[in-house]
Amino acid sequence: MRKLAVLCYSSSSVGCGNASKKIGWTWGPRLRQHVSKFSSDQNVSRSVTINSEDDCGTDYTDFHKWRNGGGFVHKSAQVDPTAIIEIGAVVNPKSVLGPHVHIGPGAVIGPAVVIGGSTKIGYNVALGNCSVGESCIIHFGTCIGQDGFGFYVDEQGNMLKKPQLLSARIGNHVEIGANTCIDRGSWRDTVIGDHSKIDNLVQVGHNVVIGKCCMLCGQVGIAGSVTMGDYVTLGGKVAVRDHVSITSKVRLAANSCVTKDITEPGEYGGFPAVPINEWRRQVATHRWILKKGIR
Predict the structure, then answer these.
(1) 149-158 own/partner pairs: CB under 8 Å, 24+ apart
(2) Choosing from 102, 173, 195, 206, which is the catalytic residue?
(3) What's the pTM?
(4) Is 206 in the active site?
(5) What are phi and psi for residue 145, nearest 5 degrees?
(6) What is the mean pLDDT of each run of 10 residues along the chain (295 residues)?
(7) Which of 48, 63, 73, 230 suits 106 as a labelling partner, its CA being 20 to 30 A distant?
């Protein structure tokens, strides 16, 4: 897709030589070399079709330069005129972008992705098989809507991939930190509720449903098919095993691990996670035993 941005620009009226001057700084030295490779030919065909590892036989003339920012948009995408799509960003077929959406450089908006009004997408974000609500902020390098981690062993002992055919749905006023990954669903959509906030480097597995106003701190890992209520807070490095439910208004201390359903609101901690006062007693007892040298 990044190659697409360069080649589309080079086939526009400005010519490839001007393209290298205008967008080489955006992509850095490696892409500047790529542009200079093509700059020797000033008569690049407007109907050029390029084969590459990730784009086989794509007709890049189906994309046009967006007037507000310089990114590239497929002719079948529905983009509000107020949207900003910066140089190096690509909006794929049948995507829908609402008013005042801002797409940062290097972002890839996959086919049929829907983005609500006033949402800001940071540099190098990849969105596919998903919808994003209004007034969201998605920081640099985040990936939403990719395959979930699902496999099974067949009768011959081969490890096969389980189809991940559904989508991810992000609510309104959600903020997602840098380099976070949210997988799309296999038997139900992955859902992030309204006003939830997710820190950097968080993994949300397929089929996970998170309620509204939840807070997930850095390096949280949520396995597949977890269901969380509203106003849940997970401290840093909390792990949640697959197919468990966490009721609303639960707070989990950092480094905790949820191994079974939590059905009562309150504070929890430890591995496995237990009510916070019980965990504190466990820690105090362990220290006392070590201090006394009891074996």
Answers:
(1) 149/183, 149/205, 149/206, 149/224, 150/186, 150/206, 150/224
(2) 206
(3) 0.80
(4) yes
(5) 95, 10
(6) 47 39 40 42 36 50 93 96 97 97 98 97 97 98 95 95 95 98 97 99 98 98 98 98 98 98 98 96 90 75
(7) 48
